[in-house]
Amino acid sequence: MSEAIIDPDLPIIDPHHHLWDLRPLMSAFPEPRHDFLEALVGAAYYTFDELHADTHSGHNVVGTVFMECGAFYDASRGEALKTVGEVEFVNGVAAQGASGLYGDYRPCAAIVGHADLTLGDAVKPVIEALVAAGNGRFRGIRHAAAWDADPEVLGPPFHAPEGLYHSDAFRAGFAAYSDYGLTFDAWLLEPQLGDVLALARAFPQQQIVLDHCGTPLNIASYRGKLHENFDRWRRSIHALAECPNVAVKLGGLAMAFCGLPEDGPMKGHGSEHLAAMWRPYIDTCIEAFGPDRGMFESNYPVDRWGASYAELWNAFKRLAQGASADEKHALFAGTAARIYGIEHVLPAA
To answer: CA-CA distance, 214 to 221, in Å (whole number)?
Structure first.
């Protein structure tokens, strides 16, 4: 039986979700690998209808932020510019939501795309094409750096080069990108958090958003080591919080990578159980960054591994029960609205 929605009127901006059609890629994998991969990403097909169903499952989601995921690239544009196709597609989804047919709901009000920052100064025409394709909705890029020496942790589709954020080519592109006043989302793994800390210190004027609480690991060779590595993760989070240009997304813990829970997809863990598992990470992040630099995120459909959309936000609301009304507003909508420049989707006070 589904749970009753906690605080159903609280406005939410979901600052991190994906849209994709992975079915052509999935078909290349034999069973049962196909089923495992689909479970890992939450859904092989996830576009407007699926997002609308989840965001209208009881909570008051007024707007969302799309996060790049390598979907709907335009092969006709060449290697550097093919990522523009993803932003064009998502801008169409945003236009569908903005039509008024779905009420005041504004999906993909902000769009975060991808550009290869190892292009150095040559990334500038790519950024300008992404801005144009977003039609006023483009807010920044994510260039993920997730890497681990154990290839079973991530698998081939997710691996970035080792030490990406330290490389000269990436830093040159990051310097060129920083001229545009856009956001930068960073995804990497808990053992790599020093890499994003060094980047934040080197570019103190660039707004950086750390995804998924820094992605603690409970998979492959890290299985069973969450407790062992918690203090290292906590030290990294507090060090990052000392950088005023860094914010954190509070979520992603239901991914299979994090193993909170270990069994998925959606094995029926209620929001109370999920909140208890996530509390050490969420509380630490909020304590370190404060509500004005923290934002709850769904990371859907990937976090479908551990929680339904309604239960996930119920868990977040349980975790925020001790917060003031102003703090809740920041954590659930205000921080995301400010950082991604979409204050206009918030209900009038």
So the answer is: 18
Q: Coil, strand or helix: which one is 247?
A: strand
Cα 20 to chain centroid distance, Å, stands at 14
- What pLDDT, in 10s, does the model give residues 98-116? 999 999 999 999 999 999 9
Say if strands 183-186 and 138-142 run parallel, antiparallel, or are unpaired. Answer: parallel
Q: Which of 250, 216, 229 is nearest to 327 (CA)?
A: 250
pTM above 0.90, yes or no: yes
pLDDT digits (tens, 9 = 90+) for 181-211: 999 999 999 999 999 999 999 999 999 999 9
What is the maximum alpha-carbon separation in the chain? Answer: 54
Distance CA 65, CA 181 (A): 18
Residue type, 273: H
Please, what's the b/e burial string for 7-29 (b: 16 or more CB within 10 A of its CB; e: otherwise)? Answer: eeebbbbbbbbbbbebeeebeee
Amino acid identity of residue 215, one-letter, is T
Tell me the two tokens of residue 16: 């991190």
Residue 134 has pLDDT above 60, yes or no: yes
Region 235-263: mean pLDDT is: 96
pLDDT tens digits along 33-50: 556 667 778 888 999 999
Q: What's the CA dihedral at 101, 106, 109, 112 to 10 degrees?
A: -100
**Looking at residue 300, what DSSP letter applies?**
B
Provide the terminal-to-terminal Cα distance of the chain, rounded to the nearest Å: 35
Cα atoms found within 13 Å of the Cα of residue 268, Cβ hemisphere only:
1
CA-nearest of 257, 111, 91, 100 to 189 is 257
CA distances from 246 to 40, 167, 183 (A): 28, 20, 10
Number of other CB atoms surrounding residue 2 within 10 Å = 10
Residue 29's pLDDT is what?
66
Contacts of 328 (CB under 8 A, 6+ apart): 10, 291, 320
The residue-averaged pLDDT of 59-71 equals: 97
d(CA 306, CA 254): 5
Query: Scanning the structure block, which residue is given the tokens 């939501």?
Result: 97
Residue 294: CB partners within 8 Å, gap ≥ 6?
A: 247, 248, 249, 250, 285, 286, 330, 331, 335
- Residue 2: the pLDDT is 80
